[in-house]
Amino acid sequence: MITPYDVAKVRADFPILHRLVNGKPLTYLDNANTTQKPQSVIDAVADLYTTYNANIHRASHLLGELATRAYEEARVKVKTFINAADAHEIIYVRNATEGVNLVAQTYGRRNIHAGDEIIISTMEHHANIIPWQLLCAETGAKLKIIPINDAGELLLDEYAKLLSERTKFVGIVHMSNALGTVNPIKEVIDMAHAYGVPVLVDAAQSAYHMPLDVQELDCDFLVFSGHKLYGPTGIGVLYGKRALLEEMPPWQGGGDMIATVTFEETTFNDIPYKFEAGTPHIDGAIGLGAAIDYLTTLGMDKIAAYENDLMAYGTGVLTEVPGLRMIGTARHKASVYSFVLDGIHPYDVGTVLDQEGIAIRTGQHCAHPVLQRFGVPATIRASLGLYNTREELDTLVRGLHTAREIFGE
Ligand code: 7TS
């Protein structure tokens, strides 16, 4: 058993983990959906409202200065967290979804035209499908889909065949929320770059499980959500290479995103502010900064090592449950178990587990096409966070046995 950090101590940092659910200790295994928050994140948000709340970038008083500083310091923390070259390449958005939509509506509208092709994969979350479908409907561009094998791995040979001079964009998920597959993202990016095609990485799932380095990956855009990264909801990040962001037109208009305004002509602010119209999610950004501090102190490499060990343990004990079929068995997988139980509807399993205080997600995980690929209408999904334990996975297995006793033949 690998113990890169003291998980009992870590669990003490998360107040919600100590509550009861339906009279049972909470077993929180719905981290792919959203993660729980350490006290330091809760305190950072409370501290803003208790001691220095003000609007940013515009107030001529001390509180405004303090709030602006905290908001911008958080941006630098994000920059360091993903190793961006420059904090100006970090744009605050609401979530990963908004990051993809921003790129589709600005970069996409300007550069993608009728007859052009956009490549995504079978295992995308809807957040990296629908924005491109909308763009295609508007421009006459076409969506091309990288197929996957029965284990839930990308078929890179097929991807190579899809790439051509017609390809104008590639959007790819780093880690699948429905299967747990971790894609060979560097290879995907390099293959696109060989055609001069920019790549957006959907890191919504990977960002909180493994170290990320956008310079090493050489991705052109990358998105993730604060709420999955042990931070607040309503804040997310779009990373973009400076040269691309500078060329992109603004998305939303309003305060803070302009340099000069007359009724005849408006000039726009520099990046990242050009893309941050209106009063932003100040407490969200500050909370995200605190979450990044928490993760950095623990160490993303240690978190990855701990979760990989836990993942292997869980795969072992789950495989022993009679009638359990794992959906997604990629060689490189992280922190997600998606499965079905023979003859029992996933929803019924979810209900039994909830009675046991076990939080998981059942359904299609906002990734309908990949479930269609596996021919299942829904799965039961348990997903790990940095605070989960082997005991909790044993609890899950006991809950599955209970579900089989109640609903099984
Ligand atoms: N991309 C991936 C791979 C995701 O897993 C999610 C959310 C998103 C994008 C969108 O994130 P949002 O914060 O903008 O909503 N995934 C899930 C999930 O698996 N269960 O609930 C949300």
Provide the descriptors you would attach to this structure in a database record.
binds ligand 7TS; Aspartate Aminotransferase, domain 1; Aspartate Aminotransferase, domain 2; alpha/beta; 409 residues; 2 domains
Layout: helices, strands, pairs:
Blueprint: H1 7-12, E1 20-21, E2 24-25, E3 27-28, H2 39-52, H3 62-81, E4 90-93, H4 96-111, E5 117-121, H5 130-139, E6 142-146, H6 156-162, E7 167-173, H7 185-193, E8 199-202, H8 214-217, E9 221-225, E10 236-240, H9 242-247, E11 258-261, E12 266-268, H10 282-298, H11 300-319, E13 324-326, E14 336-341, H12 346-355, E15 358-359, E16 361-363, H13 368-374, E17 379-383, H14 390-407
Parallel strand pairs: 3-15, 5-6, 5-7, 7-8, 8-9
Antiparallel strand pairs: 1-2, 4-10, 9-10, 11-12, 13-14, 14-17, 16-17
The structure holds ligand 7TS.
Largest sheet, described in full? 7 strands, mixed
Mean pLDDT: 97
Unreliable segments (pLDDT under 50, ≥5 consecutive)? none
Question: How many separate structural domains?
Answer: 2
> Percent range for helical residues?
40-55%
Strand order of the largest sheet: 4-10-9-8-7-5-6
What sort of overall outline do the alpha carbons produce when their principal axes are compared? globular
Q: How large a portion of the residues is in β-strands, by DSSP E?
A: 15-25%
How many strand units? Answer: 17
Query: Rg, please?
Result: 22 Å
Q: Look at the structure and name the CATH superfamily of the largest domain.
A: Type I PLP-dependent aspartate aminotransferase-like (Major domain)
CATH topology category name of the largest domain: Aspartate Aminotransferase, domain 2
Each distinct ligand: ligand 7TS
Q: What's the architecture of the largest domain, going by CATH?
A: 3-Layer(aba) Sandwich
The helix/strand class is alpha/beta
- Give the N-to-C terminal Cα separation: 36 Å
